[in-house]
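Q: Please design a sequence for this.
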């Protein structure tokens, strides 16, 4: 998968240093992945939540943080739409970010 944009992950871990390792690990795994369907993501990340609008919510750092990615399955692109704490996640409309 092509991940757009790692910058959002980097900006988040600058203010949440404990998220750096887990976000870098997710990024590495996503770059190697070939997710062609939501089922392919669930096969790799059982705790991922498949959301409307081709979005997927990933648990990061033992579910301390949430990462929302919009997936273009046909082109193999994952767009980082949101990364934040669980409290911040509860305040966003995941289908619209």
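A: Design:
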């Amino acid at each position: 998968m092509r991940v757009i944009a790692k910058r959002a992950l980097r900006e988040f871990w600058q203010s949440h240093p404990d998220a750096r390792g887990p976000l870098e690990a997710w990024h590495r795994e996503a770059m190697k992945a070939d997710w062609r369907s939501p089922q392919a993501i669930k096969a790799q990340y059982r705790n991922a939540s498949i959301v409307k609008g081709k979005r997927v919510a990933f648990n990061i750092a033992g579910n301390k943080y949430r990462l929302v990615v919009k997936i273009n399955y046909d082109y193999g692109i994952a767009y980082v739409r949101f990364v934040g704490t669980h409290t911040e996640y509860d305040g966003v409309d995941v289908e619209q970010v």
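Q: Thanks. Anything notable?
A: The longest helix spans residues 20-32. The mean pLDDT is 96.
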